[in-house]
Design brief:
0% strand, CHAD domain-containing protein
């Protein structure tokens, strides 16, 4: 199959980002959910229909169709979402559940109802988000020089870090001078402390993925890293089976054995979890008061 162009990828990605029920805002009237249970269910069903219709439109575009028509993508999606909770519910059952939630919100008052409506209308199913991100990563793989971009950013890092620390040192001197002659401690000192904490956490290992070799396999290793972190954030685990199927898509050059892929994904998962732990630690440090 012919690989979609970058513009075709971007069109499908943009359409999937809009595959919500935002057009239903004007139809979800609080009075309906207070007084008409049958209409409530019909409106809730329309919400699901609108999301599905927009997703269907996106997948009918050239890049979406290219992806959806490949059995290996269908196997990847099945592997990623086979064990998700609630996947066995019918649309009718889901609509009834949503109607009850909106009826409950309506009973609490107009503000509560409107907040719930906003959430419902702007919500996109996880599978829709996942598919859009898969297209984003494939677009990067096919149409962008990701290894060169990563190398360039890594090479620029020491200079950026040097300027960051020089800036913090200069700011500290200026604040100390001002505090010395004003006789008071300004709130900017706390900002300086937070900047210092944040700067101390910035290095090659916390900013960039663990990709060091930039040979002919670098492009597909970046794709595997992208897909691993995507699965960790949206589905259960790193989703090695789903990634294995995605690497079989037309145009993707991969000679990875199952054992090699498992090892590579495990390395990326370890890196991602370490980064999340560090982020949590930094957040705790930033929340400390002087």
């Amino acid at each position: 199959m012919t690989i979609p162009t970058a513009e075709e990828f971007k069109d499908a990605i943009a359409a999937l980002k809009s595959a919500d029920a935002s057009s239903m805002h004007i139809h979800l009237n609080r009075d309906f959910f207070l007084h008409d249970s049958d209409l409530s269910v019909r409106l809730a069903n329309d919400v699901f229909h609108e999301r599905a219709s927009r997703a269907k439109f996106a997948m009918a575009l050239p890049a979406g169709r290219w992806l959806a028509e490949q059995r290996t993508f269908l196997r990847a999606a099945s592997a990623a979402f086979r064990s998700r909770r609630g996947s066995g519910r019918t649309t009718r059952e889901a609509a009834r559940s949503l109607a009850r939630a909106l009826q409950s919100a309506a009973a609490f008052g107009p503000e509560t109802f409107q907040r719930r409506v906003n959430l419902v209308c702007n919500f996109r199913p996880t599978k829709t988000i996942w598919t859009g991100r898969v297209l984003e990563h494939l677009n990067e793989y096919f149409h962008e020089d990701a290894p060169a971009a990563l190398q360039k950013r890594k090479a620029a890092l020491p200079g950026h870090l040097k300027r960051v620390h020089q800036g913090i040192a200069s700011l500290q001197v200026l604040l100390e001078d001002r505090n010395q002659y004003s006789g008071r401690k300004d709130v900017e000192v706390e900002i300086l402390r937070q900047a210092t904490v944040l700067a101390s956490s910035l290095n090659k290992d916390t900013i960039f993925p663990p990709i060091e070799r930039f040979d002919r396999t670098a492009r597909v290793r970046i794709l595997i890293w992208r897909l691993t972190t995507l699965n960790l954030r949206l589905v259960r685990g790193r989703g090695v089976a789903a990634i294995r199927h995605l690497l079989e898509l037309d145009g993707v050059e991969s000679e990875w054995t199952e054992r090699q892929l498992e090892k590579q994904c495990a390395q990326y998962e370890h890196w991602e979890r370490q980064r999340l732990q560090l982020r949590t630690h930094i957040s705790g440090q930033l929340n400390k008061t002087l």
